[in-house]
Structure formats: structure tokens, C-alpha cells
Amino acid sequence: MNNPVTRRAFLSTTGAAGAFVAAAGAASLAAETKADVIDCHMHLKHGDAARTEWSADAIIEIMDQAGIDKAVVFGMSTTTARSIELARQAVQKFPRRLIPFLYALPSYERPVIREIETAISDHAFRGIKIHAGECTLAEYIIDPVIRLAGTFPVPCLIDCAGNATVAARLAETFPQTTLLLAHMGRYLSTDVQLVEQFIRVAEKFENVYLDLSAVALVYKIEEAAQRLGARRLVWGTDGPYKNPDAVTYAKAEMDKVRNLKLNDADKQLILGSNIARLLNLPK
Questions:
Q1: How many angstroms from the chain centroid is the CA of residue 226?
Q2: What is the pLDDT, as a whole number, of residue 12?
Q3: What are the residues whose beta carbons fall under 8 Å from the beta carbon of 123, sequence distance 6 or more?
Q4: What is the pLDDT of residue 33?
């Protein structure tokens, strides 16, 4: 883009590399006796009707009680600039626990490429969150963001709102960009065919990973692990949610993975090692 020196500095300081090169290290990560539990999907600001916000202190308290070591945090239902500030302040307070993603909210009249590039290059943001509920995924809007992510590289956590056709187009058009497809397709979907479509997208494109937050059809997680391999799944809570309370909710999301009929090494990959690898987190 317009700042190649900054991007090179970013690559050298964070050790960013293509996800597929790093994937060869998955087996050794799985063999470790203890790995961090990392939530790949935690909101500083939600997209619910109340646009609920959570402080960094509250999130850390929930993490401590639920047994979560680190979490990717971001805000949505706000501007890209404010999402960056929310995450920056949270991570500044808890730099060893919280991992910043920015929220991309581009539009035809409001380009955000420079803000995104600066956040990643100058402030060590590790990824981008995109939500089809607030941002059209049409080519002329979203493609520059997906392309930019691949040049650093950083992953994009995308809620496609059930549109597997769009997910497949993005994966095929931008093979250098790692795509984390939220909720295995759609938030709390009970549509078996919809979830199946997203698993098939992941089967076809190796730059696609499935985010397991708020998945209602838990048996499809196990099926996805068998078909894709555990290294293609990343765990998150989509929290905090008071359902019935934030800690119980987080533990229930964790138990979805811990109760699967998978070996411990695969569960460890899903609960943290995969996202640690994709984000090039220090060991």
C-alpha cells in the first residue's frame, strides 16, 4: 500500500508469516502439556439491541473465573476509529491477556483503509473483525479490506450472516488472507444445511477456519474436526453474555469443546493453540 517501510517493520517485530507455513508447527504445539486457553471472539462492545459495552476489567474478571488465559477483543456497532480506541485502551491496561482486533466498517463514502493500516502497522493490532449485519460484503466495499489483511498478514474474523456464497468468494479471491468464519456460518443457527455449506467452504479453501462461538449444532463441531482436522477450528465465546451469567456462559462455551469425542491434543489445538499460531503470539 502506501507505507511499505512500516509494514516491513510490522513483519519484523511481530514475526507475522503466512498461516499455512506456520501450520507445520501444529503438531509440536499440540504435544505441549499446557497451552493457553484463548478466546478468539470477545466483545468490548456488542451488536445487541442495547449495544452493550464491557470494560477491560470486567472481561479480565470473567476470564479469570472461567479459566481463559487470553482473549481477542474488539468493539462493534461503532466506527472503525472508535473500535481501535476501545481495543487500544483495553490492551494497554492488560497487555499480556488481551489481544486487539479492529472493527472494519467501510462504506462507499467512508474509506477506512488508512485507519486499518495504521492500527496494524503502528499499534500492533492482530486482526480485523467484519460483520455483515453492519457492513455490506459487496466487492466494491469489502474487498480492499480483505486484500489489505493478506498483505500484512493478519486474519479477518467475519460474520457472514449465513451467506456461504460470499464466504467462498472471499476465500477464493484472497487465498493469502486467513478467514475465520464466525459461528460456523450464522449465530446460533439450527439450520443443518447452512452449517454444512460453511464446512464445505472450509473443505475447499485452506485459508478458511471455522470459529466455534455460539454454535447451536454442537455435533457439527465434532464432524468438522473429523473432516477438516482440528487445526482448522478456533474457539471463542462471542461473550461476555449474561446467560445466565457471564462466567457460566463462558464455561458452557468451553465445555462444548471439552466434551467432544476428540483426543486431548485436538482439544488443545481448538481451545488456544490454533489461534496462537495464526496470530503469531509469543510462547
A1: 21
A2: 46
A3: 84, 88, 100
A4: 54
Q: Which of 164, 170, 168 is nearest to 183 (CA)?
A: 164
pLDDT attached to residue 7? 44
The C-alpha cell that represents 239 in the structure block: 461473550
Minimal CA–CA distance to 178: which of 18, 14, 8? 18
C-alpha cell at 250: 463462558
Would you call 77 helix, strand, or coil by DSSP? Answer: coil
Backbone angles phi, psi at 93, to 5 degrees: -80, -35
Domain boundaries, the chain: 37-278
74-91 tens-digit pLDDT: 999 999 999 999 999 999
pLDDT at 22: 40
d(C-alpha 200, C-alpha 258), whole Å: 24
Strand stretches in 98-150, DSSP E: 98-103, 127-131
CB-count burial class (<10 Å; 0-12, 13-18, 19+) for 11 = middle
Q: Was domain 37-278 assigned CATH 3.20.20.140?
A: yes
User: Taking the alpha carbons of 93, 47, 167, 118 in that order, is the dihedral positive or negative?
Assistant: negative
DSSP labels, 195-221: HHHHHHHHHH-TTEEEE-TT-S-HHHH
pLDDT tens digits, 112-137: 999 999 999 999 999 999 999 999 99
> What interhelical angle do 192-204 and 164-173 show, nearest 10?
10
Regions of the chain where pLDDT drops below 50: 1-32
Residue/partner pairs of 199-203 with CB below 8 Å, 24 or more apart: 199/223, 199/224, 199/227, 199/228, 200/164, 201/164, 201/167, 201/168, 201/171, 202/228, 202/232, 203/227, 203/228
